[in-house]
Amino acid sequence: MRALVKTKIEPGNLEFTEIPTPQPDKGQVRIKIKRAGICQTDNLYIHEGGFALKPPVVLGHEVAGLIDAIGEGVAGWEIGDRVLTQTTYHVCGSCRFCKRGELNHCAQRKGIGSAVNGGFTEYVVVPAQSVMYLPDDLTFEQGACIEPLSCGVHALTERTVVNAGDVVAIFGPGPIGLFAAQVAKAQGAYVIVLGTSADKPRLELAKELGVDVTLNVETDDIISMVKSATDGYGADVVVEATGVSAAVELSMSIIARRGVFVPMGVFNSEITVDFHNIKKKELTVQGSHAQIPTSWERAICLVRQGKINIDKLVSHVFPLSQWEEALEIIKNRKGVKVLFDCEK
Fold this sequence. Notes:
26% strand, 6-stranded parallel beta sheet, alpha/beta, 7-stranded mixed beta sheet, globular
């Protein structure tokens, strides 16, 4: 089968090649992939590497498709079932985190698309317990976007509770930021999304999605405008979804006293944080990493209830054979959510 393989951890070393079609072992199922989403993490793996990356490996962890083979001992699934898969391939099952359902913190965790083969291919094998039904009223495109949406759900309903009337400021109008913004709106928050001049189309999209205010960090007086919108207090919750040091610094200036700072971005470089500001304002720093099984369930419910619009975020669907063009779109931030049609 065709596959997009990261062959070495060093920048580049990406190869579109043929690899053997996998067979499911005991407790596993094989998914014929219909759609696979490209994440900013995939872009970082390609151009910078990453601690979780174990090449050679097929990239891609946002997957939806059809079950087409079932391993020994698997019950409850049938050939042809419409499914998506969580990213967890292996956990120990016995540590304190596994027992609490916090699989993202298991020290032995392996994920698809980083430690084991993922979704930028035609078939992927995953544990049956990681598979979820894709409801008939959701498309495969929507199914492939549940993973990044579940990150926003985890951040703003499980790690931090956003209340109706809270002011939530989100740095970064990429897919993660825009999904988080919609989750915050679904909780009844007043939402501000911040980006750069290059993000103008994405900021316009944020308004279409129901965001209350969009701001340009390069041209707007951010501090005064946020304070003006919040009776001088600042934002109750600030989500950092860029991984950029300047955004962290500005976050500390617009967050309200006793506010909550939620870092969601991927930080591949050293970040300086103003701890005096954290102390003085009595801030809560609530890290949010990936998601847990309940995040996926809640994400699907929000979509089915019409509270999250995925379709507006999907800007491109490329045949897997046009991988170079698709990755160029991601690299240059010309689209929003880019997917592969893995059958073409």
